[in-house]
Amino acid sequence: MTSLSSPKDIFHISNRLSFGMSEKDINKINKIGVNSYIKEQLNPKNIDINTFQTVKVSKYQKLNMNVAELFKNYNSQYILSQNGKKQSFSEEEKKQLNQKRRKFFTDTLEFKIDKSINNPRQLEEVMTDFWFNHFNVFTDKMRNLQQILITNYEQKAIQPHALGKFRDLLAATAQHPSMLYYLDNWQNVNPRSNKQKSKKGLNENYARELMELHTLGVDGGYTQNDVISLARILTGWGIMNVNTPQSDNGFYFNEKLHDYDDKSFLGHTIKGSGIEEVSQALDILAYHPATANHISYKLAQFFVSDTPPNTLIKKLAKTFVDSEGNIKIVLGKLFESEEFWDTKYYGNKFKTPYQYVISVLRMANISQPPTNMMIRQLRDLQMLPYNYISPDGYKNTKEVWLSPDAMIKRLNFATTVAQGKLNNNEQINSSELLKTFTNFFTPKTIQTVKNSDQKWQSALIFGSPEMMFK
What we know:
Oligomer: single chain
Shape: globular
Structural class: mainly alpha
Low-confidence stretches: none
Number of domains: 4
Largest sheet: 2 strands, antiparallel
Helix content: 55-70%
Number of helices: 25
Radius of gyration: 24 Å
């Protein structure tokens, strides 16, 4: 790891460990150095966010409800159960409830964008976004429920573990109603159960993705029999309703729908014992060498290169195993590795649309862009948060996002920002941008900007190659 704070190093670090360069972060790195900045970001609890939190707590208070509170306020079944003999809603009441849910989801998107731009714990935000895509859920599946659950899933199941233990992260996502709804495990029941009245029975969806995407990887050495066994282990693993015991996180294990027979899973015998079976299965998956390799590959691809070097993957996988899946320790190994600091990887990662948009706003010092305009822009760029339909999540590689049409849309966004349309119609001052960020652009880019009409200079900066890549 370098101890110098050269412009190239600052560009590299601020783009890889955050959502993009900001004047505040550049000043901080210059003050404390690259090494100290990395250490600080790996320990987010040491970063003071009191000022940030004070504003957000009052503005987004309702987004902090637990699942039980969300159900009571936004779930039709729960609302009706609190209204005595009332069995259904009028059309007007349905309309009002749907509007209430849509407003909640719009606030959810605003909150995510706000935190991505402004939270000084940038690495934690980056990793929360990384893990959300790893454990992806899609808002439009069971939309009325997911619209209100998605922020709880991200803020309560993912973010607390984004730099913690992978095993804890795995369990938190496995129990959350968003995941249970999205991959259908709430419908996964023992076909022989006396309570099973439908023909659905065993549902393998979550069991398969849990191994293929979340842990072992597609080449992780599991078989179809392992998928079936894991699905059987997960029977009865579901979601509370008005007729079940209540819990803050919405999880409910229905022992009457569980398969209590013994199972053979990845070479292990798991005795039929109920809810404890899932804990054993998650241990096997979380600490499996294939999981270490799969997660290490994805981290190396995200932080270093679309085609990460095998030497780095092996180092990270060993660290993952040795630390029992401690994400902070694995990232520490990554950030001190020769591969991470190899200059051939500097600026080689093409930003995803979300990363690009947030990085432009951070550079422009636009802290509160209009939410509806942001939603339109991100939808147009095909990366609205929480909107990827398949469980593998949004990709982060150049081949997925780089195209002529995508570049036109990005340049249009750069122009929109430069003209001040996301900043109360106050145009972005190109002279201030050049004063602050000149050292992070090539002489060719700087010359191109200076030779252009001043009204286009900010747009050219935001649309430059240095802003497209990280």
